[in-house]
Amino acid sequence: MELIGRMLEGSIPYNPKDAAPRAGFFGFRLRQEDKIEHLSHVPLLAGSTRRQLRAVARIAEVRERPAGTVLTRAGEPGDEFFLLLDGRVGVEVSGRKRGKLGPGDVFGEMSLLDGGPRTATITAETAVRLLVIRRRDFTLLLNKVPDLTRHLLLVLSRRLRQAEQTPNA
Asked: How many of the other CB atoms lie within 10 Å of CB of 80?
């Protein structure tokens, strides 16, 4: 029922011509153009060109997971980035609940870049649909599209400067 309500309100795009029936929680495919649109809102990719976003969309795969699935576990090695398309997840850091994430939120970007251990445990509270980018694929892409590498360095540099200017409360 939630799915139908979200389709009617427009938070889940639905066009019968674009939807290819298939098994899964959400029952429709995500077109390449839809992937590009979702990726254009990811802060790490902010300001990327359409060509760069298209290249990232090609390596992004759609995954669906049921409620209760642990998507990341704090302390374990990370090699994937997640963009939450549908559903809700809970975030736990150091054994304490820290919040929830919903459609449009991202997690795992640090692990995508450095492969370091996860800083949080993320658990699906509802069925979720995610765009997932594996570190190995992303690294190969950065080698093929050097402009994207330069762009990411600029974004990260701006974020670091902003963090350094923000006073600790």
From this structure: 21
